[in-house]
Amino acid sequence: MWYFTITTTTLWSPLVLLLLLWSPPPSSASTFNHGETVKNLIRNLNLFPPHDINILANPNVVPTDKNNKIVEKPLRFPNFSGEGEGISLDDLAHRAGYYPLQHSHAAKMFYLFFESRINKKDPVVIWLTGGPGCSSELAVFYENGPFKIANNMSLVWNEFGWDKVSNLLYVDQPTGTGFSYSTDTRDIRHDEDGVSNDLYDFLQAFFAEHPEYAENDFFITGESYAGHYIPAFAARVHKGNKAKEGIHINLKGFAIGNGLTDPAIQYKAYSDYALDMGIIKQADYDRINKVMLPACELAIKLCGTDGKIACTTSYFVCNTIFNSIMSHAGDINYYDIRKKCEGSLCYDFSNMEKFLNQGSVRDALGVGDIDFVSCSSTVYQAMLVDWMRNLEVGIPALLEDGINMLIYAGEYDLICNWLGNSRWVHAMEWSGQNEFVASSEVPFTVDDSEAGLLKNYGPLSFLKVHDAGHMVPMDQPKASLEMLKRWTQGTLSRSGDDAEVLVAEL
Ligand SMILES: *[C@@H]1O[C@H](CO)[C@@H](O)[C@H](O)[C@H]1NC(C)=O
Ligand SMILES: *[C@@H]1O[C@H](CO)[C@@H](O)[C@H](O)[C@H]1NC(C)=O
């Protein structure tokens, strides 16, 4: 989940562009307007977080440990008996906790852990929601978590929760998002170094607390802006393993759903996808590609992998493309072009806030007085400088070392569309590139019907998921669970019902 500024569409003349590219970052006045726009986009999801960010002077929470250890408690949601799935909650470790981030001034990272409903030896899978700045609880309750929130505010099991094939971890990050908080503004993160070091420190603390899971296979997953977090996090874990830093983490792979990873390719795909899908007309397409796209491409080139002002500038320059497309698209839901945004709402995730703000639920989570910040506009803006950086560059080294990557994409998402995802995956240079490009597309079959199209070679897989938008596990819960199961068990490439039989035999 992430948002864009929908400002008035400006047709940048080359002169204006030059000024923009070399001008200092936006004035505080325009930053303020930008912040308002970001808040409106959060409201499109029917979310009304009480603060912009959880940076608090005197938070009242369960005291944390002096030695930077995790403080964790068993989690039992009120009024949820867990009946109906043939398992007892008493046999399952569900936990909520805080980790005092080691390389921060005063940050505490909130996390949830759900033990596999089937087998403790299942892989450990961590999920990261995007934004940047949205809480991973969005995924817990609307995508792949163990339960869903019924309209009467009680929980019901999710038949296709990813805890059916994995031990599932969710974290609220970067600091200030969800229930994660700090007392020090210096803990606000601005780049993938900050993000990936925090996540790595958390993992170390988690496996120190739970050595019983440290031998399991480990996979990183997530969506949307996590297309930035995940390659950086995977590289950080791999680096730690190679340097024998701390506990060895059994990293086997990472998966990104509808992600933003290589912005130059992803932004170029906007107009192509929009034209293909009938969202814009040929004349709009020609105008975008003639005027806006070259400016965006130049801006992204100046940003590179570690630019600063140039990167923030390129965010504003390039998003004129998206804004222009949306000005022609009317009220379509840019996360799922089959749908419309009704009134001001593109989705209604308000039950999550209602549920998590109940006193009894907050007690169960051990969050004290910390308010739930579903999506943080301040975290979003703090990460603008990171947005246009290319995170593809670190991936080939991971593939060469045998770490698997799955890129999957719901076919009806505009904002991080499958076309851009597919193009950067094909364009990526690594030792298996030719073979991957030459390999044929095969159906990804679930229940005897084609749920997607798969391409695979060696450690690299690309899956285009049918009948899904930006949030694949929400739109295609069963197919997404099958995808995770086959991918983590190494049978995804043996797609179709053979794989089903094989998995059943295991
Ligand atoms: C739990 O059930 C009690 C009694 O039915 C009710 O008063 C309370 O609001 C419920 N709590 C939640 C969190 O649903
Ligand atoms: C709440 O809704 C769920 C799902 O529809 C239902 O199973 C449950 O019985 C309801 N609980 C109450 C207390 O009405």
Automatic annotation (TrEMBL):
Signal peptide: 1-29
GO molecular function: serine-type carboxypeptidase activity
Keyword Disulfide bond attributed: yes
Main location: secreted
Protein's UniProt keywords contain Hydrolase: yes
Function (record text): Probable carboxypeptidase.
UniProt keyword terms in alphabetical order: Carboxypeptidase, Disulfide bond, Glycoprotein, Hydrolase, Protease, Secreted, Signal
Subcellular location: Secreted
Organism for this UniProt entry: Cicer arietinum (Chickpea)
Family to which this protein belongs: Belongs to the peptidase S10 family.
Annotated protein name in UniProt: Carboxypeptidase
EC assignment: 3.4.16.-
Origin: domain of life: Eukaryota
BP term (GO), one: proteolysis
GO annotation, cellular component aspect: extracellular region; vacuole
Pfam families cross-referenced by the UniProt entry: Peptidase_S10
